[in-house]
Amino acid sequence: MTARPGTLGELRQSGYRPRSVKRELRDNLRRSLADGSPLFPGVLGYERTVIPGIINALLAEHDFILLGLRGQAKTRILRSLMDFLDDEIPVLEGSELNDDPLAPISTRGQRLVAERGEATPVEWLPREARYNEKLATPDVSIADLLGDIDPIKAATQRLTYADPEVIHFGIVARTNRGIFAINELPDLAPRIQVGLLNILEERDLQIRGFPVRIPLDILMVFSANPEDYTNRGTIITPLKDRISSQILTHYPQTVEVAADITDQEAWTDRGTEDIEIPLEIRHLIEAIAFAARESELVDQASGVSARLSISAIELLVSNLERRLLRTDDRPIYPRLCDLQMLLPALTGKVEMVYEGEQKGVEVVARQIIGDAVKKLFADRYPAVDRALGSGGEDDTGPYAGLVRWFVAGNEVLLSDEQTFDDYEEALYQVPGLQELVSSHGDSRQERALAAETILEGLHQHLKLAREDLDTGVNYSEMVKFQLLRPHHRKVLGEVE
Q1: How far apart are CA 262 and CA 272, in angstroms?
Q2: What are the domain boundaries of the chain?
Q3: Pairing relationship of beta strands 245-248 and 64-67 according to DSSP bridges
């Protein structure tokens, strides 16, 4: 293995030729495209939408902004840009600005090359050190980003304030020859945004009253949430004009893609093979997020992050793990009554409109879960004819016998803490339910889940009442529930 050049002279002899960071990104991206290499590993659902826009921006050597709601992988995409940088590049040893040894831009770097000549020491900067990011907050200052005069440096090095070496460079300047990302750009105060104009337009850095201009070699990328434009701040027009490409992100467009993202990100491997989560339940959890994004009670301008599904499935696995440790059941299979334990994942990740706040976040969360289960029921089971009433003599549908059994005053109590045998026995006390699900699944656990889904589906179609208890879920006759427990209708958000 050939040793890397350690001095400026050795670097010249090696045939090294400097490139701008944008040209470097462009060349490496072109190579990856030609080789068919994966470009943004771990970023799913953007293959024909967002990623082509990013590729085009990089090929055009544009600074760009990703515009989208929370939880749309904006930061992940920006951080993955470092994969298109060279493994390492040569810089002057000890340089604050990552000076190119062949063309130093800092005063210190220029003095060092003038003094040491071909013996000037060179070190190698890895790609990870060439990416920096800053979360924009109102308290960020120009000094943080660009730099300022450092009186301590002037005093300790006995320099006058006229000497450019008294400058303490900010994080943007220290990312010279690299990629700098600003997250949530509208949160940056307008006067600070003005300070970025020269970097984007003229590619130079001006600090205080110094006449010196430092040409920076940098790719500037940004992220922003559309809500920020009105709620917390705005991107000033001149800065927007100088950001060459604006790329819109979005949430997963199908449940299948959303489930793949959640499976990739969530911690579900708890070191046991006794916990089984079928694809049907994984898709149901994604359907809950989709239902939240369609709910009129949720603030859609704020968005519903993909982290909702990730947190929800992690809580579900935890609930199954808890049941595994408390019962002798093997395997442990999800139940619909487990879903009430997912409420903490919803209540902290959805913003309500006024009507939703009036109902209460937990009531809305339960309603969203109910909407998702109702869709699952409609996709997999015979339809409920609402015109036939609540199981009366004229009801000849597939669920008539089930509803009549509840009309007779019977109830079913299901709990996430029951053993599977007790859970199954509670379900199949309903006459005809076991026969109805006989073809829904190859295992007892799958058929029991189908049976519970039918009861919940009947509740969602207002055929049965459901009462959420501390100990579980109770299904009973709808009319009795309406007459004897009217306060529950308000609690559960039932339709009047």
Answers
A1: 19
A2: 8-248, 251-380, 385-496
A3: parallel
β-pairing, 245-248 vs 88-92, is unpaired
φ, ψ for residue 186 (rounded to 5)?
-60, -20
Report the SS3 class of residue 106. Answer: coil
Q: What is the DSSP letter of 394?
A: T
Decide: helix, strand or coil at residue 475.
Answer: strand
Cβ-based neighbour number of residue 110 at 10 Å: 15
Task: Report how far residue 332's alpha carbon sits from residue 91's, in angstroms, rounded to the nearest whole number.
Answer: 57
Topology at the third CATH level for domain 8-248: Rossmann fold (3.40.50)
Distances from the Cα of 451 to the Cαs of 330, 423, 429, in angstroms? Answer: 20, 11, 11
| 137/197 Cα distance (integer angstroms) | 18
Query: Based on the number of CB atoms within 10 Å of its own CB, is 353 exposed (0-12), middle (13-18) or buried (19 or more)?
Result: middle
SS3 234: coil
- Name the 3-class secondary structure at 212: coil
- Is pLDDT above 60 for 222? yes
- Report which DSSP code applies to 409: T
CB 436 within 8 A of CB 454: yes
d(CA 168, CA 150): 6
- Taking a C-beta distance cutoff of 8 angstroms, is the pair 426, 434 a contact? no
For 260, how many CA atoms within 13 A lie in the half-sphere containing its CB?
Answer: 12
Q: Convert the pLDDT of each residue in 26-68 to its tens digit.
A: 999 999 999 999 999 999 999 999 999 999 999 999 999 999 9
Q: What is the DSSP letter of 339?
A: G
Whole-model pTM: value is: 0.86
How far from 153 is each of 92, 94, 157, 213, 334, CA to CA, in Å?
Answer: 20, 16, 6, 20, 63
C-alpha–C-alpha distance, residues 211 and 258, integer Å? 53
